From TrEMBL:
<protein>
    <submittedName>
        <fullName>CGNR zinc finger domain-containing protein</fullName>
    </submittedName>
</protein>
<feature type="domain" description="Zinc finger CGNR">
    <location>
        <begin position="147"/>
        <end position="189"/>
    </location>
</feature>
<dbReference type="InterPro" id="IPR021005">
    <property type="entry name" value="Znf_CGNR"/>
</dbReference>
<dbReference type="InterPro" id="IPR010852">
    <property type="entry name" value="ABATE"/>
</dbReference>
<dbReference type="Pfam" id="PF07336">
    <property type="entry name" value="ABATE"/>
</dbReference>
<dbReference type="Pfam" id="PF11706">
    <property type="entry name" value="zf-CGNR"/>
</dbReference>
């Protein structure tokens, strides 16, 4: 069962691993959750040679530091997504400038395409960040950059791409839309 893949984009699904509606908003509470997130997205995981009997102390320390780095990067990614569309490009450029990324030519449908890739040996946070930037560039290339939004239902700040025909969607999900409409209705009836 998939737990983290919602939009299929690391950029959005990683940003959305902090959910204010939950009693405990952190959806990456421990290294095991980070490993599940990576596995669901097909991201390679560091192989430190797991000994018989479970995870070694060194592996636990490694994954704990990887988790801290991913959470820190998620905060920076969320800040990029929170920008207005007019400022988001500059914010993405600043975010990208700090990444250890290189350019590679990949074959996509028989045509060469220039892609950002993480260098060999990059940590989990850097690999996820480079993939997020690559996906956001793809979103922009297909014309959905201005349709990239954050949910308008407070306290939710989940990111989504508005694929509705009129392009006026405000909420990440029916759950948030229903809560926002119910709150507005209650407010109207109180006055």
């Amino acid at each position: 069962m998939r737990q983290y893949v919602d939009t299929g984009l690391v950029a959005l699904d990683l940003a959305n691993t902090w959910d204010e509606y939950l009693d405990e908003p952190e959806r990456l509470p421990d290294p095991a959750a980070l490993r599940r997130f990576c596995a669901e997205f097909g991201e390679p995981q560091e192989d430190l040679g797991e000994p018989a009997g479970g995870e070694s102390e060194g592996q636990a320390d490694f994954w704990t530091s990887e988790l801290a780095a991913v959470r820190e990067m998620r905060g920076r990614l969320r800040a990029v997504l929170a920008c207005e569309a007019s400022e988001r490009t500059r914010a993405l450029a600043r975010f990208t400038a700090g990444l250890p990324a290189r350019v590679a030519v990949e074959d996509v449908g028989g045509a060469p395409v220039l892609r950002l890739v993480a260098p060999d040996g990059a940590g989990t946070a850097d690999r996820l960040a480079v993939r997020a930037v690559r996906e956001l560039l793809d979103v922009a290339a297909v014309g959905d950059w201005v349709r990239l939004r954050l949910c308008a239902a407070s306290p939710c700040r989940d990111a989504f791409i508005d694929r509705s025909r009129p392009g006026r969607r405000q909420f990440c999900s029916t759950r948030c839309a229903n809560r926002a409409h119910a709150a507005a209705s209650r407010a109207r009836h109180r006055t």
